[in-house]
Design goal:
The protein has one domain (about 5-80): Lrp/AsnC effector binding domain/regulation of amino acid metabolism (RAM) domain (Alpha-Beta Plaits). It is about 15% helix and about 40% strand. The protein has one helix at about 55-65; strands at about 5-15, 30-35, 45-50, 70-80. It has a four-stranded antiparallel beta sheet, covered by helices on one side. The longest helix is centred in the last third of the chain and has 12 residues, at about 55-65.
């Protein structure tokens, strides 16, 4: 059965000096299935979303992620089940 929803992963890099647990701000957001803290130079956390469309994800990224003063950068990957 085809899944009509889109899945997305939002990779987030925090600015230097950001609060250590600031990514948990998104913990109660119903669009987020789960979130992970990551290690390495590129990203600090990744959020997994289930949405109705890529536009829905874009709105989430603009209104919930990029608007935070402690977010330096983010990148998004979209997927939709084909079969």
């Amino acid at each position: 059965m085809e899944d009509k929803t889109w899945s997305a992963w939002v990779w987030v890099k925090m600015k230097p000096g950001a609060p250590a647990e600031c990514w948990q701000t998104w913990k109660k957001n119903p669009k987020i299935k789960c979130g992970w803290s990551t290690m390495g130079d590129s990203w600090d956390c990744v959020l997994s979303l289930k949405t109705d469309s890529p536009g829905d994800v874009d709105n989430f990224v603009c209104k919930e992620v990029k608007c935070n003063e402690w977010v330096e950068n983010c990148e998004t990957t979209f997927t939709k089940q084909c079969w």
